[in-house]
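Amino acid chain:
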Amino acid sequence: MDIRVYRPGELSTADRAAWTALQSKAHLNGSPELANPFLSPEFTLAVGRCRRGVRIAVAREDGEPAAFFPFQRSTTGVGRAVGLGVSDCQGLVHRPGFTWDAQDLLRECGLAVWEFDHLVEGQRPFETGASGSFASPVMDVDQGYETYLRQLRARSPKFTRTTLAKERRLGRDAGEVRYVHDERDPAVLRTLMDWKSAQYRRTGRSDRFAHAWINHLALQLFHTRSESFAGILSVLYAGGKPVAAHFGLRTERVLACWFPAYDPAFAKYSPGLIMHLRMAEAAAADGIAYLDLGRGQKEYKDSLKTRELSVSEGWVTRRHPVAVGHRARRAPVRALRNMVLSRPEFFEPADRILKRMGKIRSIR
């Protein structure tokens, strides 16, 4: 096996095509999780235009590409998953039966450590370094939207009935409800980003769109379109006005939910839930197998999901002082955060404090 590391601009057209082909065949080969848009070459290349240190390791067997490992590397050899913090799926994209040694791979990549927070299932050489696993809910629509809706009604009859009733009430109160699955107006994307920033501040969370590189990344991906990958802006309108929107990424079989938000003035109608049902209907019509709602405990995800995937966080390391120092700094922070998120007696008071702080900041 030959492993070579490339900068994003050095990756050949043939290698990009081979990478996409591995993803396209992932469902047939029993590894549908590898078809996630965050594991696509388009996502890695887009991050590479916004951030330094993005690299792609290509493993070849008999001269043919067998695996692709995207990562970000610092000058000291600290490695991170590409887009760590905004990427909801990470790992090595490979052909069936491919095996690798994590230590050897890190050595070839010039890494002392590689950190991840959404490692896809089935990556055993990396999973040995996982410090925790977390649920990532999905909405299965491969049997069609009507089948999904029928299952939703059976599992959560009150939720389904209430959400559909709110859609009808929204139409009566605000005007005709219209859904656009693939909105191409960048001004609406800007509206979504403004809503999301306000939501982050209101709930005391870090505002991702306060970072210029994330804005540039989202805009790049919005304009990225091919048969195998696209940035999808979905919008729910009422009376000709956008009331909810979502920007996500899709491959041929997976729609990764990324940035959903809505106009708080319409909160009583639950426009975000209405939009997700419309998204599921349109995705099913487009041949999507499932919508990945992403890691995180949210009531709306529990209501909409059909099952859960599992993603892991942690790091793999070599015997190196840089790896020891990095782990010593990061481990306590991750452990504390996960303890707060996993225990209601800690999470609920912390969440209230963050929301209160967010309101204070918005007033100022």
Q: What stands out?
A: The CA atoms of residues 104 and 318 lie 9 Å apart. Residues 138-309 form a domain with the Aminopeptidase fold (CATH 3.40.630.30). The chain has two domains: 2-133+313-318, 138-309. Confidence is low (pLDDT under 50) at residues 336-340, 357-364.
